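ok trying this again, last paste got cut off
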Amino acid sequence: MLVVAVPVYIGRVPALLSEWLHEIKVDKTPTVCIVVYGNFGYEDALLELKDITKNSGGIPIACAAFIGEHAFSSSDTPIAVSRPDTTDLNHAEMFGHKINKTLQSISSLDHISDINVPGKYPYKDLEDLLSVDFIAISDKCIKCGVCEESCPVGAIDFENYFLIDKEKCILCCACIKCCSENARMMKEGIVKDIAIRVSETCKERKEPGFFF
């Protein structure tokens, strides 16, 4: 069985993962598709991931959308703080048991019905936020290099941690969250405004969704 789990980025599967995901090649392999989103919405991401795995030769037998703390979450803009929590993990365990039962009940993969998941065609257009200068760095920075090491796309200069490649940056805020000195923060502007808006409108707890 193949399990593929990805974070949601602006309602879609992250473009950063697209090339890697499309290199997966399987032959009628039972597949579980999982997306993780920040209590805001996953829009077309689960449908897109399911389509990718099907095109790669997988046969989706289960899909799920779980909640994790939002990338923009902070002490000022809390969004799904500390998720996944114990309740989420209990849901995940039940999801695993249900998958096991589903596998045991399948007599032939040739007769598996398609799974209906939320989403629509064409997929949502990705908003162009990738070149936004949104990180402020204070004189608290001790040049420890943890931010550079934590950046998943190498957007922080190895020799000067104050330099950020805006074209590479994917707004994941990993460098902000990992800074032990709280030297990195969001500037006032479009990204901070989005964080405030999401924090204010997504206070109600959402629960994981499962599809078989």
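PB: full thing came through this time. The chain has a mean pLDDT of 94.
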